[in-house]
Specification:
six-stranded antiparallel barrel, 25 helices, elongated, electron transport, transmembrane helix, transmembrane, 4 iron, 4 sulfur cluster binding, metal ion binding
Length: 645
């Protein structure tokens, strides 16, 4: 079997596997729906996810240890993930092949040549890792004050290792020693004057451009909702996601750029490819020329996917192991072997020292600048409601990779990607919108936390969510609290009977209770007493439509006696009004005024019982801006957001 055939089979297999994991990330009773499928496995194989969370939090979620396997294999084999496993890379390669097939050799070599701009992806990687490293650097700064000897040991180790390596490579380590010494001096000075808490912060933003979360988000939130319908039913309800147009535009832009340059995204943007380029630039096994036999025909450059120029000096960091050069070489010069290319190699990525420092400094500054908005502090937005089990906001932003898994698995479709409601850092992170979907956040659902690959939404048990068993003393998890807008509520503002929110409140005892009151109804004219026969009351005045006033919520008050309870209207017909309770009519005279009353049950919210599930907001009959709305106040995950002592 040809090596490129084996590679294509591998790419097709992992591409279909990826799509399958996206499709089965839904709750249901069918055999193919979520039944223990390892839907996050390909994300866990992504070492950039693990490295980013490790830098941002100082911890590594157990499932992300799979990334170590990818790292080890990359060091041994090279960028095999890009050329053999990555589903996003496979899609780019297929589109690029379709766009360029049939072109002449010279045109294909020109399209596949190396470009200086391919170094941009390394700058993007450094920027994203820098943004995730601020908290770690802050902790080291604080350590430099409490235990300065630790910093001295670290600096000494860096000087020793770096100097040896530098001397071996360039016979001069003066600049390296000077640089480390200056950095150490600045570090110690900063450690004594600041703890870094104000100008150093960590924010995990790798998921915006990391190809696996990006492709997962694009498929889950833009592609699958389009094909879900009568013929193919992928979820219990049709899915809608605000911001899907921006996600779709980004996705299709990356795809169509392959028409200009094959694997455009992989070459110029992909931070994961940059990480693999650094890990695999000196891989034990690599593609390159053998010692003799090259005729400089250029066939190996014709289909090169990475732009690594195998016909001349090989750029090993750019090789994605597509093996096209080996397949195209008619003289058996190109091979995959444990020694460098005979034509020479350029192993160092095309990113100079100034560009590296600029990208790192920009990344370190990005998170503190974003925090100046105050979205994680006093200026937090109460409209941003996180799913149950979410970590406190700062820790949440240090873990969420914006993959969209939680949004896809939500059975009621109330988890949506945030826009700028959560600030720049929270762009495309999950938040709840109770106006959409089929209901609120169901009490018996804990799916989102069990699918989150980084534990930004930690996995919780049903007992913990409901506050039962071992969690009785803590009570149920609250994701927010409902507030009644009296200016829009039908009973409060418009004298219209409505208890929909109270009826649909799922907690027990109910978090929404009502207080009864009677109010006069505004009519076009006055009602006058004509007479009464049994429970039948005759009145004169404006017409009273039965479909409105015979619903059981309207009452009649007559006479001048105080303390007489109003009588409920049960029927309205040509003969007058039928009353459930006959009021005393002996004190009424013909022509006396009759008062029409409406009984209103005014809703109130008990903050001790409300868990912020949003069912009331979803079911509220006031469309648009609901008359009862849930905000993040009183949520369990942030102690400072609590309303009650």
């Amino acid at each position: 079997m040809r090596i490129v055939t084996a590679r294509r089979i591998s790419q097709i297999f992992f591409f279909i596997l990826f799509l399958w994991f996206c499709i089965v990330s839904t709750l249901g009773e069918a055999w193919w729906q979520l039944r223990g499928w390892p839907v996050g496995w390909l994300i866990q194989l992504d070492p950039l996810v693990g490295l980013g969370t490790l830098l941002a939090t100082g911890t590594l979620y157990a499932g992300l240890l799979w990334g170590l396997l990818t790292v080890v294999l990359t060091i041994v084999l090279g960028r095999f993930f890009c050329g053999w496993l990555c589903p996003f890379g496979a899609l780019h390669q297929a589109v690029g092949w379709l766009a360029n097939r049939g072109h002449r050799t010279a045109a294909m070599i020109a399209a596949n040549r190396y470009r200086r701009a391919q170094g941009i992806k390394y700058a993007i990687l450094v920027f994203l890792l820098g943004a995730a490293s601020g908290d770690l650097i802050g902790r080291l700064l604080r350590l430099s004050v409490g235990a300065p000897w630790v910093v001295v040991v670290i600096v000494a180790a860096l000087l020793l290792v770096g100097t040896v390596v530098h001397f071996l490579r360039t016979i001069s380590g003066v600049r390296w020693v000077t640089g480390v010494a200056v950095a150490a001096a600045v570090w110690l000075v900063l450690g004594f004057f600041t703890d870094g808490s104000r100008w150093l912060a960590a924010s995990l933003q790798t998921g915006l451009l990391d190809p696996v979360p990006l492709f997962c988000r694009s498929v889950n939130l833009t592609l699958l909702p389009l094909v879900d319908g009568r013929l193919v039913s992928l979820s219990t309800t049709s899915r809608i996601y605000p911001g899907a147009v921006v996600m779709g535009a980004l996705f299709w832009t990356t795809i169509f750029l392959n028409l200009a340059v094959p694997r455009f995204y992989c070459r110029f943007v992909c931070p994961l490819g940059a990480l693999f380029g650094l890990l695999g630039k000196n891989a034990l096994w690599r593609v390159g020329q053998r010692a003799k036999g090259c005729t400089a025909c250029g066939a190996c450059d014709r289909h090169c996917e990475g732009g690594c120029e195998p016909a001349t000096v090989m750029r090993s960091a750019e090789c994605v192991l597509c093996m096209n050069c080996m397949d195209s070489c008619r003289h058996d010069v190109m091979g995959y072997h444990p020694y460098p290319s005979a034509a020479g190699e350029v192993a160092v990525p095309d990113l100079n020292r100034r560009e590296f420092v600029a990208a790192l400094a920009a990344g370190l500054a990005a998170a503190p600048l974003a925090r100046l908005e105050g979205m994680t502090g006093e200026a937090w937005n109460p409209a941003v409601i996180r799913p149950p089990g979410s970590l406190p906001e700062t820790e949440f932003l240090q873990r969420c990779i914006k993959c969209g898994q939680c949004m896809r698995v939500c059975p009621t479709n109330v988890i949506h990607p945030a826009g700028l409601q959560a600030g720049v850092e929270g762009f495309w992170t999950p938040m709840l919108d109770f106006r959409m979907g089929t209901s609120g956040c169901q009490q018996g659902c804990i799916a989102c936390g069990n699918l989150c690959p980084t534990a930004a939404i930690r996995p919780i048990s049903l007992d913990e969510r409901l506050g039962k068993g071992d969690f009785t003393s803590r009570g149920p998890i609250r994701i927010g609290m409902a507030f009644v807008d009296r200016g829009r509520c039908l009973p409060w503002a418009m004298d219209r009977p409505c208890i929909v929110c109270q009826e649909n409140c799922p907690v027990s005892p109910k978090a929404i209770f009502t207080r009864e009151t009677f109010r006069p109804v505004r009519l076009d004219g006055k009602l006058r007493f004509l007479g009464m026969t049994g429970s039948r009351l005759m009145v004169d005045g404006p017409a009273l439509p039965a479909e409105r006033f015979a619903t059981g919520d309207y009452f009649i008050s007559m006479g001048k006696r105080h303390g007489t309870p109003p009588a409920r209207i049960t029927e309205i017909g040509p003969g007058g009004l039928t009353l459930a309770d006959t009021p005393p009519a002996e004190t009424a005279n013909r022509g006396d005024p009759v008062t029409l009353l409406v009984r209103l049950q005014l809703p109130y919210v008990d903050p001790a019982q409300c868990i912020g599930c949003g069912v009331c907001e979803h079911e509220c009959p006031v469309k648009g801006r609901r008359a009862i709305r849930v905000t993040a106040e009183n949520e369990t995950r942030q102690r400072r957001h609590r309303l009650l002592l």
